[in-house]
Amino acid sequence: MAGNCDLTSAVRRVLVKKFLDMSKIRLQVAGKTVIIRGRITHNRDDDPVNGLFLEQLEQTIRATKGVKNLRWILEDWVHDRGQWQVREE
Question: Please, what is the end-to-end C-alpha distance for the chain in angstroms?
Fold first, then answer.
């Protein structure tokens, strides 16, 4: 159980360092799988979220010790054919 807490804390630190609005993100860890739900937005207006940002964020999370799988369930973005795209409403 402590392993999940450590992994949750490590991934949360990554998200906070990227200035993401944590009130819009739900982070869940099941074993070595990280699940991120919600909306990806910055706390800073001058730094928009785009596909390149999400690719880099994904690489950073996957490089975190203990992460084997990463699953995104986002309201505003979709990973389609290897690329991040804004979800059409």
Answer: 38
